[in-house]
Each structure stands twice: as structure tokens, then as C-alpha cells.
Write a structure and sequence with these properties.
4 domains, 8-stranded mixed beta sheet, alpha+beta, translocase, nucleotide-binding, 10-stranded mixed beta sheet, about 900 residues, ATP hydrolysis activity, P_typ_ATPase, Calcium-transporting ATPase, cytoplasmic domain N, Calcium-transporting ATPase, cytoplasmic transduction domain A
Length: about 900
């Protein structure tokens, strides 16, 4: 648990300011609460503690980022190929490869420059002005000039400028959602708390930097400034957390290293053979360049970036914006979601859903601040007079709610105004008609609010006091209860029913408020105005309301989809565990709830042991959230963490997929990898679905690319080792033409291929089973070998032409077979294990008709013949090339039939393996 650090010394233990009474706290900091600090003491303390600012993390320079991108193994290999091509006079080859390097570096550098802005966003939060007592006078100064020991005056509308112990409060409330996740304002007082680990959200006598005062006034003793505040602690956490590479980045890095070994090994073998045969250096370099281009997937980074960009556009259309293209793929591997409650799973709009009065229970329909919804009751029950309750709803509150749902004031009071509207009461008109005669403002010290008005009551004009507050507090001040129209009975008569209703509402996780009235005489008015608090007694209990931040309509369905997809969903919130548990049950989450203090008391081993049976976490701190993410990642889970407040930022940055709400803080959005512009949990689940589809497309592309690459490399090695076609299977420009003019269209066909409906019926892929797993590599080798053999046939048994033209004709046929084989393999390899010939297939055929035309033109157009070293082919030669090109798609389709049969057999023998872990548990 994070505690506000003691300013006396960075080496001493943190001071528990909440456990010190105001006099002890001011004495601890040697401060006069009336006069404040002297100018000399302020200067001394600023020298000691520094400015009240957060330390920003300097972003990397552009040149350092560019240099880092150039050091990428793939780019190093491409640079080497471009340099050799230029050295041997292959200028066009050098230009194309160099252009690829520039594209890779620009895309990578742009993403990197956006990576580390989280702490900068913290540091650039709007700085408030503060009213401070200095040398006995009240002065206004910038917040960065504050030092520990300053006395700050606060009022509604202020941003708290530092952390501090409250010395005086008057009906003061602060909105601390940014730090604690608590959805409603927190009442503040000066009462000393127990000297123990009090959760941050329960430190009612403390105020924290960058929270806002929503009601009342207060005086605060500054106890921490700058990086020692709670917000500073979060900044420190952010600085210590480095964003991890996505699973795709890690897999592509491994694949690049393997391909590098293959490429340079192939080049080395061919060069050694050439030296043994006495080939000239220029011929060797020409041959080595061709082999390197064939062995290095020169288009891999560009094509993967293009597919990820396509996925990013799909996500943006679905109201999910990714910060980095690689995060598109990471979404598909998500195996655990830690979700914030307020505003993500819920609407963040307090709503009355239950009502109890005159011994009857009512259900209130409608969500949020819309003033529509029915009040439902048991059939046959007498319709009661709800006027006494309606008075309390609109008169003992100050919030306003417009017809379009805009709220001014306390959100809980807004829920009461909306309930009044559902009862047919206009709150604002009622307040104008019945102005307050006297008032006891709400204060967390006594937890109620009372107002007195001249009201019509049973045909007369009466002086009536209306009270709302915590049920326990209100009941203590009641002596009677309203049992029916005009029927008032002793409280003890109805107390069992009232307490049973309170328990029932609490079990549902509802926040309850009680309402009461007192009927006074005209003679009481003078004394009431003089001392309104003395009249808040001998009350008549009127009723209870149950308030909740309702679930988003799509949240429950989204959770069901996630669980069906094998994704564990946990709710992590600043609300109390009891409230959170009720929401968890409504959502259908797994069992188990725990509070922040209980969580902090567990060791990592104990927490990991209990984690499968813990799905609701209440009253947690930023450190708790970060710890949970880190422990889950150690288990091998790919974790998504959602949130909208500053207190979520560190955990969001640590997560594999940090998800911020579009309405959340700038800090959180900068730390996140994904921003949901509609703040909706169901959008995240849909984003996971899109991420899975993108990963499928990437694996299809890698399968296609590697089959072609292996086919080319083996073809070049065979030609060199066995001296086929003078050891040169194809020219470098032929290889580049295949890579960038022919193979780009199969990639487009893969990108446009629709995703099957069962993509969210499977468990998440195991991130440890990468793209280059054993089964996939064996399949690449099989497909590559078939493509190599088909392309080698013309080189070995080429057309019967004069010897001078034989190599050119044979090489042209090999080039055509490789081109057509690549196009047809793109058609069938775009899906696995489903058949690539199954509907819908028309879009793919249209796209793949273009590279077929390009291959034909490459053998017929004069300038392409000269550039590529090709020649026209006869009709029989074209038929032979087409027949050879069909070998790979035939083999691939047969292989997929066998895959589907093996999968069906495994399902019959081991049906439990087809059920996701989450579904099996449930």
C-alpha cells in the first residue's frame, strides 16, 4: 500500500497523517495553523523538498530512435543487400531495397516517438492556484510554490494542489475517482482515524493532489508535495514500467534471426561452391545478391505493417483506437481481462432502482439520467401517496438534471431528481415554489441533509422539515414511521420490516438513502431558523431508495462472449468489495471477492494460489492493480487492463494491452495501447475478436511468405550445387518482381478474406506456441519443397531451343511457375484448416487475377523482358507452367483435409479439450 511520504526526511518511515489529530499534525510540521509559514521558512523548505511539481520523463531523440530502427536485424540485412547490389551495378535492385529500408525505419520511428508520454501527461496537468496562509495573511500563489507545512484554504470548485491533512471541514466532499476509482464524491471530516493501514479511499481526513472539491469548504495542512504525493507515486510507477514487446514483435524477432541464419548460410554455401568452380567475383556477387533477396523476406515488415494498419482501421471503425500497430495482433492473444467497473462495465450514471415506503417495495425502471421509466409494484397492492417521499427527493437536494441528461451537482442527488421526475415531479419548479425556510447542509460528520419549507399537506399549508441521509443515522433520529396515507405509527412497529429491507438492498450492492419528515407549527419557525439542527429529531420515517451505477446494457452479453472465448474476466474497482460483488454476480463473473487490504496481506505465492477463485477486487490501490497484472503475466497470461483514471495508469502501462476510456484522463490514454472512444466494455471484446482475425491473417501471410521463401532458397541452392542453368535459377530482378508485384496481391486477398463465425468459440492461442511452431514449420517446408520442385522442372528439362536461348527460356518458365504457384498458393493458404476454395471465394479470385496478368505481361512486354531477362512462351509452355503451378494448391488442400480429419478424431476422443478453461470452470 502506498502512503503519503513524511516530508521530514526521505529516509524516515512514512508518517500516517490520518492517525494524527490536527494539533499533532501541525506540531509535527512546526506550522502555526492561524498564521501559516513565514517567508524565510518557505524558502528553507523549498530548498529542502523542491518544487511541488512532477518530474517528466524526457522522450528519446528522433535520431536515437532512427538509429535504433536501423539496428533491427531485418533492416541490417536489407542494407547489406542494397550495398552489394549497388557495388555490382544492380542500381534498380539497390534502389528498391533501399526504399524498403526507409519505409521500415519511418514506420518504426513514428510509433516509437509516441511511446513514452505517460509521465509527461501527469506533469502537464492544469496547475491550480492556491489560497495559502503565509506570514499571517491569506495569499494566492501557484500550486508549484507550495511546501510541506503550508496551510491551504479549499472550497467547492477547487483542485486540491497537494496532499494534506484536513484541519477544518464544512460539508466538504471531494471527487477522488482519479485516484481511488470510487464513483461518488467522498465526504471529508477532521476525525482522527486508527493508526493502521487505512485504504486510500477511506482516508476521510486527507485530501489528495489533483482531486476536486465538489462541495463545501475546508482547511488543509500540506503534508506532501511533488513526487511524494499520491499522484507523484503513480508518476514514479509509470517511470519504472516499460512497455513490453507484443507477442507478434517477439515472434517476428525470432523469425528474423532464423531467416538471417538461413539467408547468410545459403549465400555462404553458394559462394564457396562458386569459388571452388572458379567463378569470377562479379558473377559470385550477382549470384549472392539473388540468393540473399530470395532468402530474406524483404517485404515481411512492410506487409505485416500494412495488415496491422488495416486492422487498426477496422478497430477505429469499431470505436477502438490503437496506439501502436503491433497492439492489433496482441489483442487476439488476450487471455485475461482486468476491467474497471465505473464507466466501463457500468454507465457511470447513478440510478434509483428500488424504492420502499409505507411498508411496500417498488421496482424503478430506467437507466441513467433519462427521466423515463415506470414505478412497478405488486399486483393488487394499494397505490400509496408518494408525496412525502417526493418532497424529500427534490427539496432536500441541490442537483439539477436537464431533459437531455446533463447533470450539475452531486450524481447521487441527480438520481433522486430523476426518480422525482418519474413520479411526475418537476424538481426545479418545486424548489422555486417552496423555497427553503431553514437548512442543515450535508456534512460527512453527521451524514444527512435537512431543509424546511412551507408545503401543502392534506389541504393545509404546513411547515415541514424534510430529511435525507444514511439509513442508520436517519433511523436514530426517527420516533415514528409512515405506514399509509395519513397513518403514522411508532417506529418500533415497522423497524423489523425497515431493517429487513435495508439488508435486502445492501445484499444487492445498492447504496441506500433514507427519507424522513417532521411536521412543525408556525410558532416553530423562528427557533427553526435560529437553530435548524435542533429540529432534526422526533422524525417520521418515510422511506428508502436503493441506488446503483447500472450495468451497460451490452456488458453482460460481452462478458458471456469473453468467457465463451476462454478469456477470464475480473473486475477491479475502487468501490467497496460488497458493492462490487453484487455487480459481479449480475455480470456472471466467476466466484470470489477480495478487498484491497486483504489483497495486500497476501504473499505473491498465496495470491497466485487463490487467483483462479478471485474475480472481484474492491478498494484496491494503484500498486495492487500493477501487482495483479505482473503476477498474471508471470503465469504466461496475456493481460488486458482497462481504466479511465490516473490510478489505473501504471497497471495499464504494464499490461500487454492497456485499455483507456476515451473520456478518461490524458495520463491514462497516453499510458494505454488501446483507447475505447465509447468507454464500452463490449467494444473491448469486439476488439479482441478483430485482433484474433488479424492474427489469423498474419499467420496466413507468414505461411504463404515462408512457403515461397523456402521454395526460392532451395531452388537457388539446388541450381548452384547441381550446376543447373549455370548455377543461377533466377535473376535478382525476377525475385524482386515476384516479391513486390506478384506476391502483394495474395496478401491483399488474405487481408480481405472474411473471418469465420466461430472465431470467439475457441480458447485464446497459447502465446508460447508462436507462429514458427513445429507443425507450422513442417508445413512451410512441405509447401516450399513442392513449389521448389515444380519450379525446378523447367530448369532441368527446359524447352528444346538453341543453346544460346535455353537458359533464358528455362529461367522464364521457372519464373512463371514460381509466380503462378505463388498466386494459387495465396488462394488456398489464406485459410487453415478450412479449404481455401470454399465460399466466399469470388473476392479473392478477383484480386488474384491481377498478378496472373502481371506474370503474363512480364514475358510479353519488351521493357519488362529486358528488365527481368525473360522471353515469350509458347502455348504448350504456358500449359506446362500452369500444370506445374497447380501442384502446390493440390498438396495444400489434401493436407488440410487430413488436418480436419485429425481434429475431428481428437474431438471425439478428447471432447473436454475443446472446452475453454473458463467454460470448464463454470
Amino acid at each position: 500500500m502506498t502512503e503519503t511520504a513524511a516530508p521530514q526526511s526521505t529516509e524516515t518511515a512514512p508518517t500516517r497523517w490520518w492517525a494524527l489529530d490536527p494539533e499533532a499534525a501541525t506540531a509535527e510540521l512546526s506550522t502555526d495553523p492561524t498564521a501559516g509559514l513565514s517567508a524565510a521558512e518557505v524558502a528553507s523548505r523549498r530548498e529542502r523538498y523542491g518544487s511541488n511539481t512532477l518530474t517528466a520523463q524526457a522522450p528519446p531523440s528522433v535520431w536515437s530512435v532512427v538509429f535504433q530502427q536501423l539496428r533491427d536485424p531485418m533492416n541490417i540485412m536489407l542494407i547489406a543487400v542494397a550495398a552489394v547490389s549497388a557495388a555490382i551495378g544492380q542500381g534498380s535492385t539497390a534502389l528498391i531495397v533501399g526504399f524498403l529500408v526507409v519505409i521500415n525505419v519511418v514506420i518504426g520511428a513514428r510509433q516509437e516517438m509516441l511511446a513514452r508520454k505517460s509521465v509527461d501527461a501527469l506533469a502537464t496537468m492544469q496547475e491550480p492556484q492556491s489560497r495559502v496562509r503565509r506570514d499571517g495573511a491569506l495569499v494566492q500563489i501557484p500550486a508549484h510554490d507550495l511546501v510541506p507545512g503550508d496551510i491551504v484554504e479549499l472550497e467547492a470548485g477547487d483542485i486540491v494542489p497537494a496532499d494534506g491533512r484536513l484541519l477544518r471541514t464544512a460539508t466538504m466532499e471531494t471527487q477522488e475517482a482519479a485516484l481511488t476509482g470510487e464513483s461518488t464524491p467522498i465526504g471529508k471530516d477532521v476525525l482522527t482515524l486508527a493508526d493502521e493501514d487505512v485504504p486510500l479511499g477511506d482516508r476521510a481526513n486527507m485530501a489528495f493532489q489533483n482531486t476536486s472539491v465538489t462541495r463545501g469548504t475546508g482547511t488543509m495542512l500540506v503534508t506532501a508535495t511533488g513526487m511524494t504525493t499520491q499522484i507523484g507515486t503513480i508518476a514514479t510507477l509509470l517511470s519504472s514500467v516499460e512497455k513490453t514487446k507484443s507477442p507478434l514483435q517477439r515472434e517476428l524477432d525470432k523469425l528474423t534471426k532464423v531467416l538471417g541464419v538461413i539467408a547468410w548460410s545459403a549465400v555462404a554455401v553458394i559462394v564457396v561452391i562458386g569459388i571452388v568452380r572458379g567463378q569470377s567475383p562479379s558473377d559470385l556477387l550477382f549470384l549472392a545478391t539473388a540468393v540473399a533477396i530470395s532468402a530474406i523476406p524483404t517485404g515481411l515488415p512492410t506487409f505485416v505493417q500494412a495488415m496491422l494498419a488495416y486492422g487498426a482501421r477496422q478497430l477505429a471503425d469499431a470505436k477502438a483506437v490503437v496506439a501502436n500497430l503491433n497492439d492489433v495482433e496482441t489483442l487476439g492473444a488476450t487471455s485475461s481481462i482486468n476491467s474497471d467497473k465505473t464507466g466501463t462495465l457500468t454507465l457511470n450514471e447513478m440510478t434509483v432502482v428500488a424504492l420502499y415506503t409505507v411498508g411496500q417495495h417498488f421496482t424503478v425502471e430506467g437507466n441513467g439520467y433519462a427521466k423515463t421509466g415506470k414505478i412497478l409494484q405488486t399486483a393488487g397492492a394499494e397505490v400509496p401517496d408518494l408525496t412525502p417521499l417526493a418532497y424529500g427527493l427534490c427539496l432536500a437536494s441541490d442537483a439539477t438534471v436537464s431533459d437531455d441528461g446533463a447533470v450539475i451537482g452531486d450524481p447521487t442527488e441527480a438520481a433522486l431528481v430523476v426518480l422525482a421526475a418519474k413520479l411526475g415531479i418537476d424538481a426545479e419548479e418545486s424548489r422555486r415554489t417552496y423555497p427553503r425556510v431553514a437548512e442543515v447542509p450535508f456534512d460527512s460528520a453527521y451524514k444527512f441533509m435537512a431543509t424546511a419549507h412551507w408545503l401543502p399537506w392534506r389541504g393545509d399549508r404546513s411547515l415541514v422539515e424534510v430529511v435525507k441521509g444514511g439509513p442508520d443515522v436517519v433511523l436514530q433520529r426517527c420516533t415514528h414511521a409512515l405506514a399509509g396515507p395519513g397513518e403514522v405509527v411508532p417506529l418500533e412497529t415497522m423497524r423489523p420490516d425497515i431493517e429487513a429491507e435495508m439488508d435486502r438492498l445492501a445484499e444487492q450492492g445498492l447504496r441506500t438513502l433514507a427519507f424522513a419528515t417532521r411536521f412543525l407549527t408556525p410558532a416553530d419557525e423562528t427557533a427553526l431558523v435560529a437553530d435548524p439542527m435542533s429540529y432534526v429529531e422526533q422524525l417520521v420515517f418515510v422511506g428508502l431508495v436503493g441506488i446503483v451505477d447500472p450495468l451497460r446494457p451490452t456488458a453482460k452479453v460481452a462478458v458471456e462472449i469473453a468467457l465463451k472465448a476462454g478469456i477470464e474476466v475480473r473486475m477491479i474497482t475502487g468501490d467497496h468489495a460488497v458493492t462490487a460483488s453484487a455487480i459481479g454476480r449480475q455480470l456472471g463473473l466467476g466466484p470470489g471477492a477480495i478487498s484491497g487490504p486483504e489483497l495486500a496481506a497476501l504473499t505473491d505465492e498465496e495470491l497466485l494460489e487463490r487467483l483462479p477463485n478471485l474475480h472481484v477486487f474492491g478498494r484496491v490501490t494503484p500498486e495492487d492493480k500493477l501487482r495483479l497484472v505482473q503476477l498474471m503475466q508471470k503465469q504466461g497470461l496475456v493481460v488486458a487492463m482497462t481504466g479511465d483514471a490516473v490510478n489505473d495508469a501504471a497497471a495499464i502501462k504494464q499490461a500487454d494491452i492497456g485499455v483507456a476510456m476515451g473520456s478518461g484522463s490524458e495520463v491514462t490514454k497516453q499510458a494505454a495501447r488501446l483507447v475505447l472512444t465509447d468507454d464500452n466494455f463490449s467494444t473491448l471484446v469486439h476488439a479482441v475478436e478483430l485482433g484474433r482475425s488479424i492474427y489469423q491473417k498474419i499467420t496466413a501471410y507468414i505461411r504463404f511468405q515462408m512457403s515461397q521463401l523456402i521454395g526460392l532458397v532451395v531452388l537457388f541452392l539446388a541450381a548452384s550445387v547441381f550446376d543447373i542453368a549455370d548455377g543461377v535459377a533466377m535473376t535478382p530482378m525476377m525475385v524482386l518482381f515476384l516479391n513486390f508485384f506478384v506476391c502483394v496481391f495474395p496478401v491483399i486477398a488474405i487481408m480481405l478474406d472474411p473471418v469465420g463465425p466461430g472465431i470467439m468459440d475457441r480458447a485464446p492461442r497459447d502465446p508460447r506456441l508462436g507462429i514458427s511452431n513445429g507443425a507450422a514449420v513442417r508445413r512451410w517446408i512441405l509447401y516450399g519443397a513442392v513449389l521448389c520442385i515444380a519450379s525446378a522442372v523447367p530448369l532441368v528439362a527446359g524447352p528444346d531451343t538453341p543453346a544460346a536461348d535455353r537458359a533464358t527460356a528455362s529461367m522464364t518458365m521457372a519464373f512463371v511457375v514460381m509466380g503462378l504457384g505463388s498466386v494459387l498458393s495465396g488462394l488456398v493458404l489464406r485459410r487453415e484448416p478450412e479449404s481455401g476454395l470454399a465460399a466466399p471465394v469470388l473476392t479473392a479470385v478477383k484480386v488474384l487475377s491481377v498478378p496472373v496478368i502481371l506474370v503474363v505481361l512480364a514475358t510479353e512486354l519488351g521493357f519488362l523482358q529486358r528488365w527481368l531477362t525473360t522471353q515469350p512462351l509458347s502455348g504448350p509452355q504456358w500449359l506446362a507452367c500452369l500444370g506445374l503451378a497447380l501442384l502446390l494448391p493440390i498438396v495444400a488442400e489434401v493436407d488440410k483435409v487430413l488436418q480436419r480429419r485429425r481434429a475431428a478424431t481428437a474431438l471425439v476422443l478428447h471432447p473436454q479439450e475443446a472446452v475453454s478453461p473458463a467454460r470448464a470452470r463454470r
